[in-house]
Amino acid sequence: MRYYYFHDGEHQSGPFDIAELAPCSLKSDTAVWHAELEYWVWVSQLEELKDFIKREETPKTKQPPLFDKGKIKTDTASVKRRLKLILFAVLFIVTFVATLSFITSFTKKTGYKYESKNHTRIEGMGKYNKANLQRTSKSESAPVKSEKEKMADKVSEKEREIIKTAEKREPTKFLLINAKLKPSLLGNKLMVTASITNTAKLTKYKDVLIEITYYDKFKDPITTGKEVAYIDITPGSRVDFKLKTTMPPGSRTADCRILTAIHYY
Description:
Layout: E1 4-7, E2 12-16, E3 31-33, E4 41-42, H1 69-73, H2 76-110, E5 112-114, E6 120-122, H3 130-133, H4 147-169, E7 175-183, E8 189-198, E9 204-215, E10 221-233, E11 238-246, E12 253-264
Antiparallel strand pairs: 1-2, 1-3, 3-4, 5-6, 7-8, 8-11, 9-10, 9-12
């Protein structure tokens, strides 16, 4: 069963299954995501949600969001990055298997076979070798944990779950953006040069949804737009990126903030 998450530009809600959406009326320009999607998309792009889109008698006069819907479906840089990760994983697995095969072959050639924690027998001799008995000591056996140590491990696991829950619930508390928004000298283009820092301890984030607010010459807000930064940010790291979008007529300046992001471990 699919569970849907929604974001209206201010708050994130969900998860909801398709049955819970039956009495609801959705806006076509609301951002939505579920586990089978790589990125946030519009409600109007999902066939199963088109029946829930609110029918309005009068058309909207609000400036449509400056969100490049084509980038949601295809992102060449993101695909290349994932292909590199897959290739790296395959090379790692091949190297690991080859190393394991070498160790197994070496062990068979030397003729050692372990029968217990405290004794080592050389195959073909039929009795224990005293020299090899010294290789297995009490220090090599698994240490027995005390009750206090076991309790400390349980507390540590609970703390990790609490931290993960908090980082998953509110990404904006752990993602810090530092951006410079510069209108082009010719035309109506806006260049965004920014960096995002992940202050979370355990959670990774990707596909950050950014809201851009545009202001007129009197510094009054005109409208807002949404853009997605297709980046992966590990805990404690910073990622630099650039965006290019179109400014609405009459706008002179702009600023931006993070709305949400997809979390993973």
